[in-house]
Every structure is written in structure tokens, then in C-alpha cells.
Write a structure and sequence with these properties.
Layout (H helix, E strand, L loop, with lengths): L1 H12 L2 E7 L3 E7 L11 E7 L5 E12 L6 E11 L2 E6 L3 E5 L5 E6 L1 E7 L5 E4 L2
Antiparallel strand pairs: 1-2, 1-9, 2-3, 3-4, 4-5, 5-6, 6-7, 7-8, 9-10
Protein name: DUF3019 domain-containing protein
Keywords: Signal
Length: 130
């Protein structure tokens, strides 16, 4: 009986945290594929879609933190970062979306609004304007 409950418990606990960022020209979905409570999640998925062209991109990345005084321990959560070759995608906690080109030039910079969701075990959605 205990062996049957363990997979069921793992299934119930293993849900994805999804966050959607809506900017004037882009819709971005962020999925953290790490266990809840893991501070430095290294398995985050970015799904971005242009509201103008409909073009989309999916990238893998990680959570982004400032470091504490020791230079090792993660302190403040800053957002998420993703790389597509030498192009960096930064999704800030504040809702700012930035795409940084090869030379460091800013290709996209748009402020958005977060829509937080939990799926598939929760159908409730709460909206937070940052």
C-alpha cells in the first residue's frame, strides 16, 4: 500500500509553476521545472511569442540572483536569464523584458505585467501588476 501511495504523492507534488508576462509586443511564458523551494533553479523554459508577427521561440535557461557578500550564496531574486547563441534574454522580476544583442546593444526593452499561474493541479489564476 505504501508503495502505491509514493508515486501518487510524487505526482500530486510535481506540478509546474507557470508565469506569463505580457508586454506591448510580446507574450512570454516562464516555466520553472524544478522542485518548489529550489532557490537556484537551473531548469527554466522561456516561450516567447511576438504579438505582431506571431513568431515564437523556446529557450532553456535559469533563475537569476544577485550574490550575497560572500560572493557565492544567492541573495536577491532578479528574474530569469536565457541564451540563444550570443543573444541574451533577460526577464526581470519587475516585469521588464530585455533582449541583449551580441555587441551588448539592447534589441528589445519592454515593461510588462505578470500573470501568475499554477498548473496542472490548480485552475486558479491571480494577477499581479508590478
Amino acid at each position: 500500500m505504501k508503495l502505491m501511495l509514493l508515486p501518487l504523492l510524487l505526482l500530486v507534488c510535481a506540478f509546474t509553476h507557470a508565469q506569463r508576462l505580457d508586454t506591448p509586443n510580446y507574450s512570454v511564458e516562464i516555466q520553472q521545472l524544478c522542485p518548489e523551494g529550489e532557490v537556484q533553479c537551473q531548469n527554466v523554459v522561456y516561450k516567447g511569442t511576438s504579438k505582431v508577427s506571431g513568431a515564437s521561440i523556446e529557450l532553456k535557461g535559469k533563475a537569476w540572483h544577485s550574490l550575497c557578500a560572500d560572493g557565492v550564496t544567492p541573495c536577491r531574486f532578479l528574474g530569469y536569464q536565457f541564451n540563444n547563441g550570443r543573444i541574451r534574454y533577460l526577464v526581470h522580476e519587475s516585469g521588464l523584458l530585455q533582449v541583449i544583442g551580441r555587441s551588448g546593444s539592447v534589441l528589445v526593452q519592454e515593461q510588462g505585467v505578470w500573470d501568475y499561474q499554477q498548473s496542472p493541479s490548480s485552475n486558479t489564476e491571480s494577477k499581479a501588476k508590478l
